[in-house]
Amino acid sequence: MSEHAIAAGSLPVAVRTPGKVIVFGEHGVVHGAPELLVAIDLHLQVGVASAPEFRLNRELASASTNPYLREALERFWPGRPPVAITTSSRIPRAAGLGSSAAFVASLGAAFGSASGGVARDTLAQSSFEVERGAQGVGSPGDTSSVVAGGCIALNSPVGTLLWEVASDDASWTVRRLVDPGWVWVVAYSGIPRSTATAVQQVGRRLAEPDGPDLLQRFRHIATAGIGAMVAEDRAEVGRRMVENQQLLVDVGVSHPRLEALLTAVAPVAVGAKLTGAGCGGSIVVLPQAGREGEAVRRLARAGAVAFAVRPTLHGCDVVGSA
Ligand code: MEV
């Protein structure tokens, strides 16, 4: 487990951060419902070194249109000397697998280390603020997942309390669950999506007269799903994933390509659903035991970029010099 703080160090520094999948509760979590996330072994690595001017992967930072970079520099490194930031990543971008959360948390860990070290609860809060500043909307699920590693639940009474993350008008508890160690399959549809647009769309849907009923379904499914995960009941986790997918269809964030991928993998899946904001992006599959390879092949044949992924217990951490 990685509840230890990010240790003090000096530039150059390299940080490695996992991606994540949301097994239950995306969108509902923005409105206070529970969510379950697993950090996965697709990683992003960020190097930060002193330099004559601010750069991201050789591009001048002042010319960058990357809002996460701008927010992160303002928050984590205000008025400090220029640095060159380099990234390498196995997490597909804008795919719902945590690449922006991993980028932000990596920068927070790198600058935090170079500023005397940083506690993980502080890093979870500040990474959330940076991501929300860049996106304008959202919950702390993604950033807490990649900072904590392992399996975490938001807004659930189950598990061991790690920290609480707050915005101006809401707060979320973050708890650690024992991860059952299952292999998951993720598949990127190739359709990039905007988290902000999807979150706003669901916000409008939940403001309609049946919104409270929909939010109650988000709460119910995520609560039952978290219970099934803790009980290591694969069949029930799978059933709840399918139920969660129907709810995401009902609030309008599925996509024909995601539906096609879900159909392609169904014969070898215990359960499957979209993961992340939807409207494109990725699906997550709990494959039948021993049929992970077949699930990957079916999804690849259906046109997706598919991976078998394992949970990683380690959140973001300094791994050496840049
Ligand atoms: C995005 O990965 C998950 C959403 O619930 C947004 C958020 O929680 O910030 C759609």
Describe this structure in words.
The chain has 322 residues and is of the alpha+beta class. The chain folds into 2 domains: 13-179, Ribosomal Protein S5, domain 2 (2-Layer Sandwich); 184-309, GHMP kinase, C-terminal domain (Alpha-Beta Plaits, 2-Layer Sandwich). Strands 1, 2, 3, 4, 5, 6, 7, 8 and 13 form a 9-stranded mixed β-sheet that branches. It has a 4-stranded antiparallel β-sheet with strand order 10-11-9-12. The protein contains 9 helices and 13 strands. A hairpin with a 6-residue loop joins strand 10 and strand 11. The protein has helices at residues 67-76, 99-114, 120-135, 141-148, 195-206, 211-230, 234-250, 256-265, 292-301, and strands spanning 13-24, 35-50, 55-56, 59-60, 83-89, 151-154, 160-166, 171-177, 184-188, 269-275, 282-287, 305-309, 317-320. It is 37% helix and 26% strand. The model has no long low-confidence stretch (mean pLDDT 96). The protein binds (R)-mevalonate (MEV).
